[in-house]
Amino acid sequence: MTDDCDPTYGKVDRILELLTKSKSLHILMVLDRSDSPLRFTEIKSLVDASSTTVSRRIKELEDNRLIVRRMNPESPQNNLYALSNDGRDLSPIMQRLFDWAEEWKD
After folding, report:
1. Staple partner for 61: which of 66, 77, 86, 89, CB 3.0–4.6 Å?
2. In the structure, what pLDDT confidence band is assigned to residue 62 with cuts at 50, 70 and 90?
3. Spatial distance between the Cα atoms of 23 and 38, rounded to a whole number of angstroms
4. Residue range 40-56: mean pLDDT, rounded
5. What is the value of pTM for the model shown?
6. Distances (CA, A) of 26 to 10, 31, 38
7. Model confidence band, residue 2 (pLDDT cutoffs 50, 70, 90)
8. C-beta atoms surrounding 95 within 10 Å
């Protein structure tokens, strides 16, 4: 019998570590529920966090291909952020987690 760890467990650990950082999941849920891409200031306001925290989380989520940054044609200095395809794939899992948390009796 082999004691090798399934590499998928490591991937799950890595994504859970990212999602449990302050405001990561909240940013993803805000983007998921938005009808259109959002500006940084809109995300910051909706998640009620400091610019530093939002900036760090957006960069981490972008680096992990869960969100994408697009240039705003109306204001090129203001980027727009939206869920990537991978982020949209994660959406039902995030929603189920929120649903479960509402039902959970702690």
Report:
1. 66
2. very high
3. 16
4. 96
5. 0.87
6. 23, 9, 14
7. low
8. 13
C-beta atoms surrounding 54 within 10 Å: 23
User: CB–CB of 41/81 below 8 Å?
Assistant: no
CATH number for the region 8-103 comes to 1.10.10.10
Structure-token match 């200031």, residue found: 41
Question: Is the Cβ–Cβ distance between 28 and 83 less than 8 Å?
Answer: yes
**Judging by beta carbons within 10 Å of its beta carbon (0-12, 13-18, 19+), is residue 67 exposed, middle or buried?**
buried
Distance CA 48, CA 87 (A): 21
Residues 6+ apart with CB under 8 A from 52: none
Alpha helices in the chain (DSSP H): 7-19, 24-33, 40-47, 51-63, 85-103
pLDDT at 6: 85
Cβ 40 vs Cβ 78: under 8 Å? yes
